[in-house]
């Protein structure tokens, strides 16, 4: 599947999706993707797309927008239904076992991705009555997360970084409407300040991200 298809699927900018793929590949979470040229546009620009495997596409969507994981499963089923079916040689026990193992692994990958996305529904139910955005500590409390681990997760997953000693979201996550950054001036000291807050969409997204992180650190 191409990075362009994933961007269309999760309603995100293609360049944001490619940045996420690059970050995940550099951290070793997914394999380095193949790069291919897209269709030349009217102004002569040739876009470049990433091609990712089925397993890696689930990881990417879980990172970008967990709520779209089910749609990704449907898309893969659609793609695979268009391919000619090639049955293994069942007269060979080794070939049959290998085919069964491959199918089982793919199904397990899909199930794990859906399990990662599922917790966000519970958090939405808790959050739906609240209005506006939520700060770092409020979200950590909502997720019953240790603040130190939660902060480290945001840094490790490329969600936020320190700017002048303040946790700041990366631009792609602001573009995806997961954060809003409030700025102002302190009435007491007169110093300018900025504070990143999670939007309702950001709370849904980070709930899935936190679930994934917990699975990783528990291994």
Describe this entry's structure for a reader.
This protein starts with a helix and ends with a helix. The radius of gyration is 20 Å and the shape is globular. It is of the alpha+beta class. The strands form three sheets. A two-stranded antiparallel ribbon has the order 1-2. Strands 3-4 form a two-stranded antiparallel ribbon. It has helices at residues 3-9, 14-26, 54-64, 69-81, 93-117, 119-127, 136-142, 147-156, 171-175, 200-217, and strands at residues 34-37, 48-51, 160-163, 166-169, 179-185, 192-198.
Runs with pLDDT <50, length 5+? 120-125
Count structural domains. 2
Structural class: alpha+beta
Strand content: 5-15%
Shape: globular
How large is the count of helical segments? 10
Task: Give helix and strand order, one letter per element, not per position.
Answer: HHEEHHHHHHEEHEEH
What is the gyration radius calculated from CA atoms?
20 Å
User: Taking all residues together, what is the mean pLDDT?
Assistant: 75
The major beta sheet can be summarized as:
2 strands, antiparallel
State the end-to-end distance: 28 Å
User: Tally of extended strands?
Assistant: 6
Strand order of the largest sheet: 1-2
* Percent in helix: 40-55%
Strand and helix map with partners:
Elements: H1 3-9, H2 14-26, E1 34-37, E2 48-51, H3 54-64, H4 69-81, H5 93-117, H6 119-127, H7 136-142, H8 147-156, E3 160-163, E4 166-169, H9 171-175, E5 179-185, E6 192-198, H10 200-217
Antiparallel strand pairs: 1-2, 3-4, 5-6
């Amino acid at each position: 599947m191409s990075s362009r298809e994933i961007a269309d699927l999760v309603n995100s900018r293609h360049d944001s999706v490619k940045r996420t793929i690059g970050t995940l590949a550099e951290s070793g979470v997914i394999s380095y993707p193949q790069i291919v040229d897209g269709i030349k546009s009217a102004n002569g620009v040739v876009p470049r797309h990433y091609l990712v495997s089925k397993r890696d596409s689930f990881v990417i969507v879980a990172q970008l927008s967990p709520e779209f994981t089910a749609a990704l499963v449907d898309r893969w089923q659609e793609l695979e239904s268009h391919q000619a079916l090639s049955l293994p040689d069942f007269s060979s026990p080794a070939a049959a076992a290998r085919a069964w193992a491959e199918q089982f692994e793919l199904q397990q990958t899909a199930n794990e991705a859906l399990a990662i996305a599922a917790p966000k529904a519970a958090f939405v139910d808790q959050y739906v009555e609240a209005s506006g955005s939520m700060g770092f500590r409020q979200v950590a409390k909502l997720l019953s997360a240790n603040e130190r681990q939660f902060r480290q997760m945001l840094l490790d997953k490329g969600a936020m970084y320190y700017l002048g000693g303040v946790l700041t979201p990366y631009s792609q996550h602001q573009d995806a409407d997961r954060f809003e950054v409030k700025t102002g001036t302190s009435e007491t000291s007169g110093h300018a300040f900025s504070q990143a807050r999670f939007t309702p969409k950001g709370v849904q997204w980070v709930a899935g991200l936190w679930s994934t992180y917990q699975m990783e650190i528990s291994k």
